[in-house]
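User: Can you recover a sequence for this backbone? Please restate the input before giving your answer.

Assistant: Of course. Working from this structure:
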């Protein structure tokens, strides 16, 4: 994605106040529930320290854990395939489906399948792919990408979903819900949401029975037992793994954990940060002993990233979506402007590292660098610092470089800096005349200059209050 396209997408999304309102309302609910169930202060920091230690230990011995997991799955009667890239992963999954003579595939939510573009690939091969997670079903019907890792349809209102079900599934809108004009009363919208959920459940009930093969992702893979861990709230993943005659699991190699005790550290932080729940509704630990299972372990650049000491801890991510919930850019624009499977701060770091700077190198600039993403991350990934580091190699024009050099020169010389600031306050139109100012204002609003400098304000407040520190 080129720079112009990237920021035009963010600009268009941010210009839609209705979209921002829907996204913020959904995220605020998750953040409020998280605050209610996750301790703050030293206790939370201690939990995050333990979680990071677990994940970094995994990265330190990832090849050995992959080998152990493979042996355990094969000993239980399953198969493990190693896919170096997206194309090999897609072809491997297709070959499994052909072995089973599958016609209908039922899927539970998986961002890794979004990463490799699996749905469109299988559909082009003549298979019917049915998403069974409610949010994934909605965005599939709309032919959209998921907007969020844990809540794919959070960018949509009840009215949007009712229109989608009416147009794509022939399900009439709930009684009393207004699809045009002013929104319906809140109690009507809540009742409509319940009715739409039940209508989707009735629609999917028969589809589960038609599924020849179930495809899932994995929240974690436990090396010591060969177990696949899937966390959910709707029980659709359990149906995808028990009703079809074969299960296919696609997971990134970094999803491995050494043991169930490590899972015990990460699981509470995952659910609390992702959806504000003290515990997930359903935690599935699956092995091939019950349903024939094939596991496709996806590399797709991860093992190269593992050797990058500067950025390797990005692989510690547990895909909770917390960084999206708190990010001011995501909260204004939603997930679609990021242009890939992973949005928000983690997407802006992960995609350039896995896909290359040429394709996704503008994403690190879609950030305020406020640091909120690093503060909420349950495994303490310093996403703000990674975003800043990824900006460094980006090409900068001659005028931009000259502007920053001039700023650096003035910033080291207080008298010159004060003079430049005073000139800007007196002559703000200079920003439109100088090339760096014009470049800045192409995509941003330059705030009006303050009437006085901070230094002047500080000295005045000290004199007015008669002591050395304002507000003391």
């Amino acid at each position: 994605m080129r720079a112009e396209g990237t920021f035009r997408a963010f600009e268009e999304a941010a210009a839609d106040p209705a979209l921002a309102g829907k996204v913020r309302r959904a995220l605020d609910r998750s953040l409020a529930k998280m605050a209610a169930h996750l301790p703050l202060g030293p206790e939370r920091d201690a939990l995050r320290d333990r979680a990071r230690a677990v994940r970094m230990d995994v990265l330190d011995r990832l090849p050995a854990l992959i080998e152990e997991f493979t042996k355990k799955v094969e000993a239980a009667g399953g198969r493990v395939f190693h896919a170096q890239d997206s194309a090999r992963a897609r072809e491997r999954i297709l070959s499994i489906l052909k072995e089973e003579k599958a016609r209908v595939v039922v899927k539970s939510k998986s961002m890794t399948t979004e990463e490799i573009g699996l749905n469109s690939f299988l559909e082009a091969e003549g298979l019917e792919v049915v998403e069974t997670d409610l949010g994934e079903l909605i965005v599939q019907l709309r032919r959209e990408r998921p907007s969020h890792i844990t809540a794919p349809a959070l960018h949509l209102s009840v009215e949007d979903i009712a229109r989608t079900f009416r147009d794509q599934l022939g399900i009439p809108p709930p009684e009393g819900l207004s699809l045009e004009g002013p929104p319906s009363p809140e109690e009507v919208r809540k009742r409509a949401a319940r009715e739409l959920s039940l209508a989707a459940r009735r629609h999917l009930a028969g589809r589960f029975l038609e599924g020849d093969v179930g495809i899932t992702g994995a929240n974690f893979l436990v090396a010591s037992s060969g177990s696949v861990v899937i966390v959910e709230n709707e029980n659709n993943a359990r149906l995808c793994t028990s009703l079809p005659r074969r299960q296919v699991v696609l997971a990134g190699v970094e999803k491995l954990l050494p043991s169930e005790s490590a899972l015990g550290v990460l699981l509470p932080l995952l659910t609390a940060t992702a959806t504000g729940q003290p515990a997930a509704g359903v935690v599935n630990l699956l092995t091939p002993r019950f349903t024939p299972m094939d596991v496709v372990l996806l590399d797709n650049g991860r093992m190269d990233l593992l050797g990058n000491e500067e950025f390797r801890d990005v692989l510690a991510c547990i895909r909770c979506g917390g960084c999206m919930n708190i990010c001011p850019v995501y909260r204004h624009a939603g997930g679609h402007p990021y242009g890939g499977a992973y949005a928000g701060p983690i997407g802006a770091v992960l995609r350039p590292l896995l896909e290359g700077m040429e394709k996704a190198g503008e994403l690190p600039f879609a950030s305020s660098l406020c640091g909120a993403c690093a503060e909420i991350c349950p495994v303490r990934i310093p996403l703000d610092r990674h975003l800043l580091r990824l900006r460094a190699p980006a090409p900068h024009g001659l005028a931009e470089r000259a502007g920053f050099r001039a700023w650096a020169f003035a910033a080291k010389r207080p008298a010159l800096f004060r003079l430049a600031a005073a000139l800007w306050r007196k002559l703000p139109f200079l920003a439109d005349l100088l090339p760096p100012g014009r470049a800045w204002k192409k995509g941003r609003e330059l705030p009006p200059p303050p009437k006085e400098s901070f230094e002047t304000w500080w000295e005045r407040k000290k004199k007015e209050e008669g002591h050395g520190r304002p507000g003391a």
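That completes the design. Strands lie at 79-83, 104-107, 128-131, 213-216, 220-222, 227-232, 246-252, 256-257, 282-286, 293-298.
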